[in-house]
């Protein structure tokens, strides 16, 4: 937190772009996939397989969401151009 207090931005209006983080979160929360029901004779085997794949797919979805948020925030901070002001001994501020 102290680091952010020392840092200034050349274009602070680009920080409004952090609101774009809401886009992947909304897509993640309202995932509108349509699942097709497929009927098989051996349902017990499929239930076990579904439980294993559900946990892996949920982890994968959360990791993808985190990477999307990280990518958007890195782009926003790159466009805002953060810098640490240089305090020289000749120019006290």
Please explain how this structure is put together.
This protein is mainly alpha-helical. It has one domain (2-83). The protein has 3 helices and 2 strands; from the N terminus they run H-E-H-H-E. It has helices at residues 2-6, 22-29, 43-80, and strands at 8-9, 82-83. A two-stranded antiparallel sheet has the order 1-2. The longest helix is centred in the middle third of the chain and has 38 residues, at 43-80. The model has no long low-confidence stretch (mean pLDDT 79).
Furnish the topology, listing elements before pairings:
Blueprint: H1 2-6, E1 8-9, H2 22-29, H3 43-80, E2 82-83
Question: Stretches where pLDDT falls below 50 for ≥5 residues?
Answer: none
CA radius of gyration: 23 Å
Percent of residues in helical segments?
40-55%
* Biggest sheet architecture: 2 strands, antiparallel
Give the overall form. Answer: elongated
**Strand order of the main beta sheet, please?**
1-2
The helix count comes to 3
**Approximately what portion of the residues adopt beta-strand conformation?**
under 5%
Q: H/E element string? A: HEHHE
Overall structural domain count: 1
**Derived structural class:** mainly alpha
Distance between the termini: 22 Å
The total count of strands amounts to 2
Mean pLDDT comes to 79
């Amino acid at each position: 937190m102290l680091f952010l207090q020392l840092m200034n931005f050349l274009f602070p209006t680009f920080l409004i772009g952090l609101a774009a983080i809401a886009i992947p979160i909304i897509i993640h929360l309202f995932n509108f996939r349509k699942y097709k029901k497929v009927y098989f004779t051996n349902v017990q085997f499929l239930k076990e397989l579904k439980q294993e794949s559900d946990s892996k797919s949920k982890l994968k979805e959360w990791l993808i969401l985190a990477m999307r948020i990280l990518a958007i925030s890195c782009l926003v901070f790159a466009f805002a151009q953060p810098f640490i002001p240089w305090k020289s001994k000749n120019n006290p501020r």
